[in-house]
Amino acid sequence: QVQLVESGGGLVQPGGSLRLSCVVSGSGFSFYDMGWYRQAPGKQRELVARISTGGSINYADSVKGRFTISRDNAKNTVYLQMNSLKPEDTAVYYCNGIAVLIHKNYWGQGTQVTVSS
């Protein structure tokens, strides 16, 4: 059973920073495309950033220049460094993993990020 466990959320003031982590259980992490999504109250879940098995990265326009996604295959972990946070970044952030060889899609349980003064 593959599990994705996020951590690092919390309350931060506007302009502050947070780093989210997502650890994937089991083997084969290097064959996962990984991503971060978020869902604000009353809104649909949206892509924040993705990083492929080969290291290709894409970001939502709303976070470009402020957020950085990275991965450490030795630690089965994907990170999301969030800088210059804005109140509109407030959402539950979800880690997503796609096991590309077996075409399976996995989600974490989510971690709350609140940006408020």
Task: Provide an overview of this structure.
- With 117 residues, the chain is an all-beta fold.
- Helix content is 0%, strand content 52%.
- The chain contains no helices and eleven strands.
- The chain has strands at residues 4-7, 10-12, 18-24, 32-39, 46-51, 57-59, 67-72, 77-82, 91-99, 104-107, 111-115.
- The strands form two sheets. Strands 2, 4, 5, 6, 9, 10 and 11 form a seven-stranded mixed beta sheet that branches. A four-stranded antiparallel beta sheet has the order 1-3-8-7, with no helix packed on it.
- A hairpin with a 4-residue loop joins β9 and β10.
- The protein is globular, with a radius of gyration of 14 Å.
- It starts with a strand and ends with a strand.
- The mean pLDDT is 97.
Descriptors for this entry?
4-stranded antiparallel β-sheet, 117 residues
The total of helices stands at: 0
Q: Determine the strand fraction and express it as a percent band.
A: over 45%
Helix content: under 10%
**Ends apart, CA distance between termini:** 40 Å
Approximate shape: globular
> Largest beta sheet, briefly?
7 strands, mixed
H/E element string?
EEEEEEEEEEE
Structural class call reads mainly beta
Q: What does the radius of gyration come to?
A: 14 Å
Mean pLDDT: 97
Number of DSSP strands?
11
Give the low-pLDDT segments.
Answer: none
